[in-house]
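Example record used in the benchmark description.
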Amino acid sequence: MPFIPAREFAAFCSYEVEGIPLSEISAQMQLPESSLFHVLRTLEHHEYLQQHSDGTYQLSPRLISGWLVRAAEHVREVARPEMEKLVNAFNETVSLAYLFDDRIHMLDCLETFHEIRMTNKIGRVLPPHCSAMGKSITAFQDRALADRMLEVYGLTPRTEHTITDRKKLFAEFEDIRKFGIAWDREESIRGRICFSAPIRTEGDRVVAAISLSTPTIRMDKKHEAEVQAALLETARAISRSLAKG
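Model output (C-alpha cells):
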C-alpha cells in the first residue's frame, strides 16, 4: 500500500464543502488512481472516509470533528500570548472564535478587570450576521458555505441595529474583506461595541478571528482607530505564527 501523508490528506479533504473525486485526490497526493483506489477503499472500510453516491470522497464526520478540535486547540495555544498582549494594552475583553463546519464557536476569552465589562462564554455559538467575529469569519468563506451558515443560524434580529437584509449583509462582507476589520455596533447586544480581525491558518484560509469588545461608553473615534490597528497587527502576528507550524 502506498504511503499517504495523513496530515496533508486530511487537510485537503476536510477543506472541501462537497466530496472530491478520485482524480483530484490522485493529483493532489501525486499517486496513480489505480493504487489510490485501494487505499481509499481501506480507509472507507475503517470509517475514516465516506463515499457519496456520485463517487466522490469526503472525510467521515467523526474524523472531521476530531481533526477540527485539534486544529482549533492549536490556534488557541498560538493565539493566547497575543490575546494577553491586547488585554494588557487596552484593558478590555479579548476573545477568540473558530469555525467548526458551519457554526462559529467561542474558543477562548480573556476578560478585563473593569467593574463594567463585556463577557463571553467559551463554547457558545456566535451569530454569523451580527457578531463581529461571526461576520469576520463568514465574510471570507465561499458563497455556498456563507449561505449555509446564515441558513443554519438564521437572520434573527437581536437589537434594532441588527442587519437582517441579506443583500446589505453581503455588501458589508465586501467591506470586511477590503479593510480586514469587522464590527458589531450594538447589533447583538445593546450598549456593546466590538471589533474583530480574521486569522489566517494553513492554506491561507480564514477559520478563526480575534476581537476586542467594550461598553460603548468607553469608545470614541480615536480609540476605535487604535483598537482596529492593534487587532489587525495581532491577527497578522497570529497568522504568521500559524504559518510557521
